[in-house]
Amino acid sequence: MYVADDKRYDSMQYRRSGRSGIQLPAVSLGLWHNFGGVDNFENSRAMLRRAFDLGITHFDLANNYGPPYGSAEETFGQILKKDFLPYRDELIISTKAGWDMWPGPYGDLGSRKYMLASLDQSLKRMGLEYVDIFYHHRPDPDTPMEESMGALDTAVRSGRALYAGISAYNAKQTSEAVKILRDLGTHCLIHQPKYSMFVRDPEQGLFDVLEKEGVGSIVFSPLAQGLLSDRYLKGIPSDSRAARDFFLKKKDIGEATLAKVRALNEIAGQRGQTLAEMAVAWVLRDPRVTSALVGTSKVSQVDDNVAALKNLKFSAEELRKIDGILAGK
Ligand SMILES: NC(=O)c1ccc[n+]([C@@H]2O[C@H](COP(=O)([O-])OP(=O)(O)OC[C@H]3O[C@@H](n4cnc5c(N)ncnc54)[C@H](OP(=O)(O)O)[C@@H]3O)[C@@H](O)[C@H]2O)c1
Question: Does 276 contact ligand 1 (Cβ within 6 A)?
Fold first, then answer.
């Protein structure tokens, strides 16, 4: 029987999600990869246990994580039943709907029909009565935003979710969505944007909107899917995400990128960190970032990413050097 480490709250840092009552761990774990039906169940289980033992109280899912679609939620549901049920009230579990999930016009995007049916399916797969956060995974250009936000509001009001979130909405769409939710009486708890040293779009207005509106941010792919680590410095390992050549493409690991990774790796070394640790620390340097949402394929990566918290401070000189490297100077 799994008994969680009784020191699990001793070293993790928790940050408040905007103007809300919820604090999230500075590092959260996402189940997009390595928790599907095709993956090794005991490895998935070991990563979740290790994460919780280190104070990671937040696990992030979506309806279509797998493969196959839905299977990450099923895996999580089984592990929850075996290991985590006594700890349910110590966990923030999120799921999302917005990308393709089932065939036909009601299994994708942002209709009320899709979003609420999907949430019911997610709850069933995970064996939960409610999720802590339910997200709209991406904006739907063809559905009125009032309808998608109305579905989030219904999810919260009906008790299927405690909080509402949005992902991949740009700054303008975010202002609109937050206002619609507020008018309905539901606060938008959090936004989930992509953000890393390699992808800095949220700095162009989104973070400002989130700060003004009191909405937290949990940034995904802070390691740029593993690129911002030492993983690819000596080629493409056969057990890596890039080896699968699907979400992270081999062609994206060209010499220009590797030159940046090597230079960043050197700065990380001077800071006494691995590059993965520095990549996590770098996103957390901005107080508007509530949590760095990492993925992992092995337990040692969970340890490494949490170890980032030992050094979150960057000197102005380090930041200047990093900006120079990223700009290709
Ligand atoms: N809202 C959205 O639209 C959206 C989109 C994408 C992701 N997400 C969320 O964000 C989460 C994280 O995304 P991500 O998996 O792309 O994040 P990431 O942390 O940037 O990349 C994770 C990958 O990096 C490698 N890695 C992790 N830690 C490492 C370490 N310490 N040293 C060396 N390599 C390391 C592993 O690759 P290998 O497998 O090669 O070992 C791991 O699978 C997802 O699980 C999901 O919850 C949300």
Answer: yes
